[in-house]
């Protein structure tokens, strides 16, 4: 495993490929705790040290699961643990119905996450989304108090605008911004956002780096998704869009087959090639995919291969928005 620095050259080292843990509890069909634990064990054995969770994933269930695994391993210092706050759920439906980044909520949410994780300190604490009615300076000011109290080591934001990042960074250094970034979703990062991150020394943590599994090349149709899979509600997997997007996956596959590696490995290697300040966190709940994802850190693409992979997925050819409209409305503030 190769390693990168979180938040500039003075930041802590993290594995160049991290592990998104959400799917171990929610979102991508039925959970299999035993297999998910094997996936975490495999990640540890391969040097994949950067683990990502959030209080919103299963309304705390994912934090409890990851925390239980950590306690079982007894090696807290061997991982860089990231979690998030700010999304609140409707008790009746279980769906996210509000964003709360008020200063009063910050310590309440953090203490709850620490209890569920069973740790005294989180390495990286993100605001999962931003309530535009709350000045980000106030939110980050409250988050900075957690750093002073020894409950959090570094601060992060997720899906914010460059302007918001600048305002936040002026209050307390922001080490990472979590953004969707993949061959399928490039406009969120590339351009002003990436330029701002690089100016400020902020790492881009790329979530859904495989296009929510599409770029892994194992999905052949919408019918393969279980009723519990959230992708059935996402526009890029709709009846009218999925065929067009799978055609793009086949175009990627044509390039990847010449490189001679699995599609997921090439897609992650493409992201890693975009800069030393990019850290993808592919999510999986299966040990065999952890091994494949980790191997991407060792794959060095040529400039021609990078360009051909980018050209295989023209930005305007991707069909459908990356989220349903209600979720889109929470982004980019």
Automatic annotation (TrEMBL):
Entries under InterPro entries matching the protein: Aldo-Keto_reductase, NAD(P)_OxRdtase_dom_sf, NADP_OxRdtase_dom
Sorted UniProt keywords: Oxidoreductase
Domain NADP-dependent oxidoreductase span(s) in chain numbering: 17-312
Gene Ontology molecular-function annotations: oxidoreductase activity
A Pfam entry, by short name: Aldo_ket_red
EC number: 1.1.1.-
Protein name: General stress protein 69
UniProt lineage: Bacteria, Bacillati, Actinomycetota, Actinomycetes, Kitasatosporales
């Amino acid at each position: 495993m190769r390693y990168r620095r979180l938040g500039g050259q003075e930041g802590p080292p993290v594995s160049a490929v991290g592990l998104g843990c959400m799917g171990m509890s929610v979102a991508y069909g039925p959970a299999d705790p035993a297999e998910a634990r094997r996936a975490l064990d495999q990640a540890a054995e391969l040097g994949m040290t950067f683990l990502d969770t959030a209080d919103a994933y299963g309304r705390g269930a994912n934090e409890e699961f990851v925390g239980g695994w950590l306690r079982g391993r007894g090696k807290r210092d061997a991982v860089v643990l990231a979690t998030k706050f700010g999304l609140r759920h409707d008790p009746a439906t279980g769906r996210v119905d509000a964003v709360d980044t008020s200063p009063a909520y910050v310590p309440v949410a953090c203490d709850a996450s620490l209890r569920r994780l069973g740790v005294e300190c989180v390495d990286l604490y993100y605001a999962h989304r931003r309530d535009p009615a709350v000045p980000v300076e106030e939110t980050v000011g409250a988050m900075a108090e957690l750093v002073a109290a020894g409950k959090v080591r570094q601060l992060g934001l997720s899906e914010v605008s460059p302007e918001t990042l600048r305002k936040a960074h002026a209050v307390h250094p922001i080490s990472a911004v979590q953004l969707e970034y993949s061959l399928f979703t490039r406009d969120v990062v590339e351009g002003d956002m990436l330029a701002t991150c690089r100016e400020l020394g902020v790492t881009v943590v790329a979530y859904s780096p495989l296009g929510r599994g599409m770029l892994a090349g194992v999905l052949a149709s919408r019918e393969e998704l279980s009723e519990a899979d959230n992708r059935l509600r996402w526009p890029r997997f709709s009846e009218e869009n999925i065929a067009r997007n799978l055609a793009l996956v086949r175009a990627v596959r044509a390039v990847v087959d010449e490189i001679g590696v699995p599609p997921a490995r090439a897609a992650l290697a493409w992201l890693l090639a975009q800069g030393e300040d990019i850290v993808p966190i592919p999510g999986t709940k299966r040990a065999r995919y952890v091994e494949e994802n980790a191997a991407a850190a060792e794959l060095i693409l040529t400039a021609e291969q990078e360009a051909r992979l980018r050209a295989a997925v023209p930005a305007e050819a991707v069909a459908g928005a990356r989220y349903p409209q209600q979720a889109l409305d929470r982004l980019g503030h």
